[in-house]
Sequence to fold (940 residues):
Amino acid sequence: MRKITFVINGRKIETNERNTILRASLAHGIYIPHLCDHPDLTPFGGCRLCVVEIEGRGLTISCKAPVEEGLVVQTETPVINKVRRIAAELLIVNHHAECLQCVRNTECKLQDIAAYIGIEADHLQRLRQTAGDHPIDNSNPFFIRNPNKCVLCGICVRTCEEINGVRVLDFAFRGYETKISTLMNKPINESVCESCGECVVRCPTGALIIKDYQRPDRVVTTICPYCGTGCGIQLGVRGNKVVSVRGDRDNPINKGQLCVKGRFGYHFIDHPDRLTTPLIKRNGAFVKASWDKALELVATKFKEAQDRYGPEALAGLSSARITNEENYLFQKLLRCLGTNSIDHCARL
Amino acid sequence: MVGLATVLGSGAMTNTIAEITGADVIFVTGSNTTENHPIIGYRIREAVRKGAKLIVADPRVIPLAKIATLHLQFKPGTDVALFNGLVHVIIKEGLEDKDYVKKRTQGFEYLSSMVEKYTPEYVALITGVSAEDIVRAARLFAVGKSGSIIYCMGVTQHTCGTENVVALTNLSLLTGNLGIPHAGMNPLRGQNNVQGACDMGCLPNVFPGYQPVYGDRDTGTYWRRLKLEKDKSLQPAEEVDPSKLITDSIEFERPVYKGMSVSDEIRAKFSKAWKVELSDLPGRTIAEMFHHNPSRRNRVMYIVGENPVLSNPDTDHVRRCLEEMDFVVVQDIFLTETAQLADVVLPAASFAEKDGTFTNTERRVQRVRQAIKPKGESKADWEIIQELARRCGLDWHYSSPQEIWDEIRILTPHYFLGMSYERLETGGLQWPCPAVEHPGTAILHKDKFARGIGQFSTVEYRRLAADVVDKEYPFILTTGRKLYQYHTRTMTAKTDGLNRLLEEELMAINPQDAERLGLNAHDIAKITSRRGSIVSKIEITDQVLPGVVCMSFHFAETAVNVLSDPAVCNMSVVSGLKVAAVRIEKACEVQK
Fold:
């Protein structure tokens, strides 16, 4: 791809052609306030916060403006400040701003913008029309849709179309009544939503949040335990418990995307039904046993049967769930004990 | 995977998942991708948005069928006829990639005469798909610059599963779609490490890296060729031992050589490395362990992380087999239906509690990392296996999964030598990766096939003799999986939200059939096959054709495998889970 050089706030920037001014400047560490732009999605130009001034052309929104050779761009002028302040105030004025109780607190794009632009309470009061009081959609077991915190950036709409492809959401109604809606404005669990949570991950505010979310204290990158796609995941760990899963954006397969099972189906890890000690069956009922006792019994039974009926008396089924190393050891053990009767569920 | 391995010499996805979005045409068959491999489903939808043509060949109206350019809704079990029909049209209209066919394949003449009789009209009669749609599909697929074929258990889980794959491979070869980007034959693996379990030799006939243990049957083609190159003086035997022919319904031009024993050398190599004598007695497959065990050759079973009681066909029989065993040890993270039948249960650590590697459906080996301590006294499977090995008198001293992996790399250099843990740190690598400088292999069969030349194989459609529909059992029951549950629900049932989204089985039945049987939505139906019967709530939907019903095997309460047919494909020994003849009756009306 061809490289292009342009100037922003007096700094020369080199970037790929077809990049936008917004993404190029963010990549070079120059912040331009923005809400509706997301690196995974096509530019939308809805929030009008990312206005910049191009020399000789005037104001433009940088998320839709492609870079051109030799452009001279300003991000901070009195005119820009005035325009985007109004845009920001109109977004914030009807927002249910209960930040301390919000799951998105400190990770909220709207907070970033308010902090950057500087919002005056008096001014906001003057603009206030109606405090929106839309019903909250609790119907999905994994996430909540709260239209009262929605800024109509349309990221969820584009995510559903461009990432998942199922197209559940769109803008509905007009003017003040505009909201993000499913077909016929039904609760989301009555739509064709696949509960993948991709929209929740990308929502810049608290309008889409995960239920019972706990922030992890650390993150471990690993691979999803479900189907054979092999998506990269990051387990959020708190103490000795997995409390969240997110997609690994550096993974070449899923690029951060996940499905409902991968994202929300992790509760088996810490489930009380997990086996925690070896069990030996006595008179038809399981009793707890030590590792020593259990393994000794297994080894003895293997030997007895093989001594009596030949090595082929032993057969083993390995698992498509365990690691390569473990599968290798499993077949090595059985073959070392003289039997080739080893299989797993590839045929199922 | 035997089907693909037979024709190409290697049974795995030939291309990468990322390439799907760039395909011109995508042919999805026997895979409900958006529900079972959702991320791959996202890629297919993205390709369609970008303008790719999508052909879905599936007996059900799966979600992808709704955005498909063409949906071929054929009768379950008639796959071979359909694929041969497409091949017929392509050859008849001269749409094959002539240059590719000439340079890289053999057996074209043979194939063209075989498919002669599979005219669109004839195929329409067998499959129920209209002749026009067959012609359209063939043209759509052949005209595209790159055509990706994506398939899953819907193709393989038949008593003719291998034949299905072979017939499908003809389509890909004929249109020059093997060895190029955005194309290929792409079987989707259902579980996180099925590919790895195969690669690691958890199959009776092969050591890790598909190195044959005995004979040179099945997947040993790579090694057969290696031996040929080594020993040029060896000529094909005059007479081919008929027992060595893999099946009589498939005619292979390639003779099986006599007097070869690559496997002796391989066994010697592993014997030396493992410091034991190794057996060359054929081992049994999973189906044979449970269903063809009349002499009760196996008395003791060691089962790790599997639930065959629910996942295998003819559940009652599997249960009986396990009960009759002298001793069963199950190693799992939960007390599954299978573990309950065990004499000893060993608690294993979950994926989040250990290190290692998984191999995905596109042959990519990736690092699994420990996030938390094992629950209770549970231990990583590798530790349990090692401790058991020591008690069986083996002198094993692995201190970490990495040490095991390095041993694997040395013993399977052609696949994994280049994949050190260090290199796997980010993004993983795709096998084959035979050297530390090797970048891994994104596309298989680029310049030549693993077995040398691409082989057209001729397979005829045959009516499934195993489990035919008749007056007593007039419906075809096919099985599927659903988005919100997974396999036997050992894992997904533990997440309340997933249970809320899909709490019970609903058998899909066509409105016409439902009306005829007097069934209303959510009524409970009794479903009876030649092996047993179960009851299930129903869902009336035109997603299935009249005469076809569909269930998942997720729920223990409606264990569909009580019904399914344990007859197996005679090449790959895969059970024919996708087709069973059943009778349907109303069991009771739903309580209003």
About this structure: Residues 193 and 358 of chain B are 5 Å apart (CA to CA). The longest strand of chain B covers residues 580-588. Chain B is about 30% helix and 15% strand.
